[in-house]
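User:
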Amino acid sequence: MTETTPLMIAGRAYGSRLLVGTGKYRDLDQTRTAIVASGAEIVTVAIRRTNIGQNPDEPNLLDVIPPDQFTLLPNTAGCYTAADAVRTCQLARELLDGHTLVKLEVLGDPKTLYPDMPATLAAAETLVKDGFQVMVYCTDDPIACKRLEELGCVAVMPLAAPIGSGLGIQNRYNILTIVENAGVPIIVDAGVGTASDAAIAMELGCDGVLMNTAIAEARDPVLMASAMRKGIEAGREAFLAGRMPRRRYASASSPLEGLSG
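Assistant: Predicted structure:
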């Protein structure tokens, strides 16, 4: 494994390990400029909130994020039942000419936007059986994450913290356990606030990070997108390099043996 090893999702290779969303930007021009600055190749789109052709009289996101330049990842944001999530993925497949790569999220309540895991598991099982390639937003529960992998999800996406909170990774040990036991890509989703949060996720061994609010709500979204790109790259290189051990006491940078006098 080297720093040039691509991110593999559903049999396709990606050079960038940063995945980004399209919501909360000032306008479509800023959306495109920030996404280009991030270097992301996978861009997630909320089907229930974004026009990708279903409303012909409104601005179309695909005009600025064309599918021939980016891998679109339709998501089920705003769905609170397994049935709604499944229907939303089926709509995305129709709108995008048979596209089957989707991001599943089934929310538990509108205040925390925390995932409803029983509903998420049920929707994931249905979608996989229907031929979808499912990337799934979930809690940072190692058991639930393994179960989603066993159901056939192509990537598991545990939260770092609640959606849009910017709190960073709140339970590093759970994320580390999930990574250590995974046979599919683990992508931290939700809760990242700044570039150091992204770097920490990558240093833990995650395969990638998905974010939206941290970039879109920054004072300068385009500059933050660039910072996130660098944070992802630095964290990945640090993981591959292998950090020094933590020690309770000082350890001299220069060896003491062989000093004259």
